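ZP: hey, is the manganese (II) ion complex queued? I don't see it on the tracker
AM: it wasn't, my bad. submitting now with these inputs:
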Amino acid sequence: MSPTFNLATRLPRTVKALDVPAFSGALDDAGFDDATRAWLDRRGFEGNLGQWHAVPRADGVLQVVVGLGSADDFTSAKLRRAAALVAKAASKEKVLVTQLVDVAATRIDPSDAAQAVAEGFTLALYHFSDYKSRSTSPQLGRVSVLGGGGATTRAALVKGAAIGDAVCTARDLVNTPGGDLTPVELARRARALARKHGLQVRIMDQKAIREAKLGGLLGVNRGSEQAPRFIKLTYKPEGRSRGKVALVGKGITFDSGGLSIKTGQGMMTMKTDMAGAAAVIGAMEAIAQVGPPVEVTAYVAATDNMTGGDATRPGDVLTLRNGKTIEVLNTDAEGRLILADALCLASEDKPDAIVDLATLTGACMVALGPRIAGAMGNSEGWIGQLQTAAERTGERIWPLPLPDDYRKMVDSTIADMKNIGGPHGGALTAGIILSEFVDEGIAWVHLDIAGPSSTDAEDGETLKGGTGFGVRLLVDAIEQFSPLSVTKS
Ligand code: BES
Ligand code: MN
Ligand code: ZN
């Protein structure tokens, strides 16, 4: 849960903890007393982004001094990061007065500033203690935002807190062990969330999935004791709609690799293989509260990928929702099989644009490292809109190609295609397979989030474990969405 934010027009009389933000090269403007300034100088504080110190003032007030970097190229992504550092430094305080919005508003839009600060605080104070016998949660429950600003600032704080909480929903889903977050449990949580926020919800059980001929989802589920689910959540705007967007998520609640089994090491993090599903469910939670003028439907295919006695065997052929056939030569390339069915269902609803998120390939991590998602698709305009959103939210994505002449790498001797390509370009051949299940004329982007969806290194607003990557960028892209044409890239 996010802390409570309230507005303060001037410094409250009783303050115990206060942040003091400073742009680099402008320490004289930050209002430090002489002793604090000398203390900071001795420690080499220059106001750079990432620098912070907790400095008790002579009267006992805890000052959290934080660098904002250069004032000239200041952004809300930098502000969000600074807010996260302040939140962590002050997490043991009950109340904090923040000047971050006030100071940032001299450089960026005040509403953007308030939203970024609320997001930064909420994200940094996240903790997952469901499995701790004794939990030590952060104490910081109230943040007083200095500078006034009135109703618009207040609304932006509420929005930032809602978006931050939705990212934390996604993190909770990713962090929950695969033995507990089964497909049925994932569906239960999605339904509860939909009810709470007034979203339409439809959940398909095994029988409905069979009737719908989701051969990819059924094929992956075949080795599992856990029933599959297909989850559909819809948000409809109250007034006029600018268009219709489909969000598709990979919901592999645990990926053992199936009969093409992973190593023990390779399996250790595979409860996170539903991070795409978590991102689209989290995004729907936020969208329901933000209320953009765009119709949005989330499609989540959920199953685990196990090795049961009747598991799909390498060499088996599956027939997917749109009738195309895939020869499964490696059962560990399962994400594309369930996403393909989901992309068919999304296409059938005729949206203006589709974006899918999936922890799809190790190859994408080889290409772009742990913090950047790969973006592939059929519409430069849609990739562009998502990239613009990603820059604003500080979640990085980078375009990769889907070359026509690579299609033959997935040619099968007996079926329409096989589910793996050659030894190289694995992120692209996965994308090429997905492209076969998107109807022509629909703008589509595939985000391979295998890298940034979880981390073992804390960094600003990003904490260890599930990161909730994608939630903020989806919400931002939908708020800014404008219809587009398909221009094969
Ligand atoms: N879920 C994995 C991809 C993955 C790997 C995500 C590491 C996060 C971290 C996916 O299902 C998978 O196993 N992909 C295979 C595909 C291969 C068999 C063509 C891979 O990347 O090795
Ligand atoms: Mn796999
Ligand atoms: Zn997987």
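AM: back. The first strand starts at residue 4 and ends at 8.
ZP: great, adding it to the tracker
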